[in-house]
Amino acid sequence: MEILDTAEHLFETQGFDNTSTNDILNEIGIARGTLYYHFKSKEEILDAIISRLTRQLLEKAKKLIEKKNVPLSQQLTLIMLKLNVSCGNFNHKILEQVHKPQNALMHQKIQAHLLSELTPLISTLIKEGIAQGIYQTDYPEEVAEMLFLYANTIFDDLTEHSEEEKQKKTAAFVFNLERLLKMEQGSIKTIVDSIFQNIENDT
Predict the structure, then answer these.
(1) Is 112 helix (H, G, I), strand (E, B) or coil?
(2) Residue 153 and residue 147: Cα distance in Å, rounded?
(3) Which residue range(s) make up the domain with 90?
(4) Looking at residue 203, what DSSP letter applies?
(5) In a domain, 11, yes or no
(6) Helix axis angle, 42-66 to 72-82, nearest 10°
(7) What's the CA gap between 16 and 154, in Å, rounded?
(8) Residues 76-104: tens digit of each pLDDT
(9) Is 144 within a domain?
(10) Any residues with CB less than 8 A from the CB of 24 and at least 6 apart, and which?
(11) pLDDT grade, residue 130 (50/70/90)?
(12) CATH of the domain at 196
């Protein structure tokens, strides 16, 4: 939709707070009534953009899960690390803007959408791991939520940290992931180190 494409471009270049509905109208060249027929406010436009983006990210997550030749623990860590909106893993310009102060609402909305949609996918992997005897937990849904939130917190804006800080954050992630799922200590360190190195190479 042209309205969403235009608004997304303006949010990327000017910031959400610095873009008005008049800016969108002037850029497209449509009447205000036409805009309000589809969206009642700038916030509704942002919600539609975030929903569209979230669907794209979730498709990537589902493709990871469909790769049955990839070990379960690797799938789990790939989803949490590769789908972090701050790691530069997606060729999407709006994601490059989410950490700017004027786009705080955009970042918050993306994270909220991903949390609600991605947690069930992570939970499915955890339950499969429980069935295979790889993981142990009585709370797969709650652990899935904690893992997603934790990964998106400690790896937030990863490129701005020193090498020492990155290594410490990675070690903490591995430590807590293994304990949440009652895995043998060190069992996923190689997997996470490999994924972490790939993220480094991509940034």
Answers:
(1) helix
(2) 10
(3) 55-202
(4) -
(5) no
(6) 160
(7) 25
(8) 877 776 655 444 444 455 555 555 665 67
(9) yes
(10) 3, 6, 7, 10, 35, 42, 45
(11) very high
(12) 1.10.357
CB neighbour class for 185 (10 Å; exposed up to 12, middle 13-18, buried from 19) = exposed
Whole-number pLDDT of residue 108? 78
pTM (2 decimals)?
A: 0.69
> Distance (Å, rounded) from C-alpha 13 to C-alpha 19?
9
The residue among 163 and 26 whose pLDDT is bigger is 26
Asked if residue 38 belongs to a domain, the reply is no
Helix axes 72-82, 189-202, angle to 10 degrees: 40
What are 29-60's pLDDT values in tens digits?
Answer: 999 999 999 999 998 998 898 888 878 778 87
Which are the contacts of 150, defined by CB distance < 8 A and separation ≥ 6? 173, 176
153 vs 5: CA distance, rounded Å: 29
As given in the structure block, the two tokens for residue 189 are 């360190």
72-82 vs 140-154: helix crossing angle, rounded to 10 = 50
Look up residue 159 and give its two tokens. Answer: 């490129």
Considering its fold, how many domains does the chain have in total? 1
Which residues, at least 6 apart from 112, have a Cβ–Cβ distance to it below 8 Å? none
Positive or negative: CA dihedral 61, 63, 66, 72:
negative
* Residue 14, both tokens: 């000017």
168, 176 in Cβ contact below 8 A?
A: no
Can you give the C-alpha Rg of the chain in angstroms? Answer: 19
